[in-house]
Amino acid sequence: MAEEINLSEHPLLEVANDIIREEKRRKRTKKVVAVSAFIIIVFIIISYLGYAIGYYIANATSLSLLSKDPEARFAQVGFRLSEPLTVTEQHKYNLQSDEGWVGGEGYVYWTTQNVSPQTMSFVLEHEGYSNTNRLSPVTSGSFTKDEDPYLPLTLYEAPKQNRAERHNLNLNVADPKDYFGFTVLFRLLIDEDRAGTIPLDNIAIYFNRDTKVHGQNELPKALRFGFQSGAKKDIISPGRTLLEENDYTGSIAVGGRLDLDDPRAPASLTGFYDYTFGLDGAKYGESGEQIYEIAYGEFEQPLTNENWGEPLAEAEEKLEHGDVFHAVTYKGVRPLINVVPQRQYYTSFQKYMLDGDKGEPLCYTNNLGVAEMNIKFWLEGWDLATTNKVVNKSFGMQLHFVAKRAE
Questions:
Q1: What span, in angstroms and rounded, lies between the C-alpha atoms of 207 and 359?
Q2: Distance CA 320, CA 290 (A)
């Protein structure tokens, strides 16, 4: 009789079972690895989207109006545009035509009291300005509060090098794509059954306390917010804290020496204040060939030959951490001396911020309950904070306004 074999104890079968168990284990491991990898990828995507959305929100521009007048409880924000909008654009960005009620040039469109970043971006692009929250340096030039108050601010190109002239004034009007601007309207309304019984004029518009501008590095200090409304015109430096005892006033020079040479330029140019080619001194009433340090921008007095010293026999030692505004004079160059630059005076948000009974109004409503402001926002080319670290960097603005009846 043949011997009965116990298959469960057969060596080959045990090997086969081991192989099967190992294969199953490998498959489970693959599944676990695949699921883990999927979870990690999803986590990374969510984290990135969260960062991207947060970054977008932080670096977007929004605007709102809050009414603190007990009689005029309803508020709207509007924009004055140069060209009409299509019906599709009106619906997409929640903008309703004024139909000539306000009057004036262009086309007025109203939205709610809160303007979304998408609507702000559309308005800027529609008017031909930058809509990316990334700006290139421009300048207002010299400025004093309420100077030419009935004219909107004009912005000019940042200084550009011209080595054929010893004074580069550079008052060419800036490209709107290098900054942005808009004309905003504020409207206060009352209940329909009380129309005509409550005056809507002389209601003051201020910045609310949650107004802020933010960006990387020194960017907020380099930015400028300029506005014009009626007889009021001013420039604000959002990133600076100014003292109330000084009437929240600061200033920068808008004239002087600069080093605009590309870092890849020859060593005889980089680190040195810009200077002219060898020029015929007869051009300026002098003799022989002259090399002048270039004077950029605006000065209190017209420049004369006395504003350039004797040529240096040796170049000054280069600065370890020089930049556009900080350099030295090259050998053989006549340094710019004894000059007084003109200045851009600016203030801070605090000056126009409603804080209890403090704050200076930005503007006032008319008899229709409407106030209007022309606003420009730019990267100030003459500010010492405007270095390569902030050029074309993005920033965010939350422009929150509040209305309160003047007492």
A1: 9
A2: 29
Give residue limits of the domains in the chain. Answer: 18-54, 62-254+342-405, 263-341
Among residues 114, 220, 129, 233, the alpha carbon closest in space to that of 174 is found at 129
CA distances (Å), origin 117, targets 133, 272, 380, 385, 403: 11, 43, 23, 27, 21
pTM, 2 dp: 0.83
With the C-alpha atoms ordered 383, 386, 392, 397, is the resulting torsion angle positive or negative? negative
State which residues of the chain have pLDDT below 70.
1-60, 131, 133, 192-196, 407
- What's the chain's Rg over C-alpha atoms? 32
Strand order in the sheet with 295-297: 167-168, 295-297, 255-256
| CA 117/CA 222 separation, integer angstroms | 22
Tens of pLDDT along 110-146?
A: 999 999 999 999 999 999 997 676 789 999 999 999 9
Which helix (H) or strand (E) segment is 122 a member of? helix 117-126
Q: Compute the distance between CA of residue 394 and CA of residue 275 in angstroms, rounded to an integer.
A: 33
What is residue 271's predicted lDDT score, i.e. its pLDDT?
Answer: 95
Contact by Cβ (8 Å): 206, 359:
yes
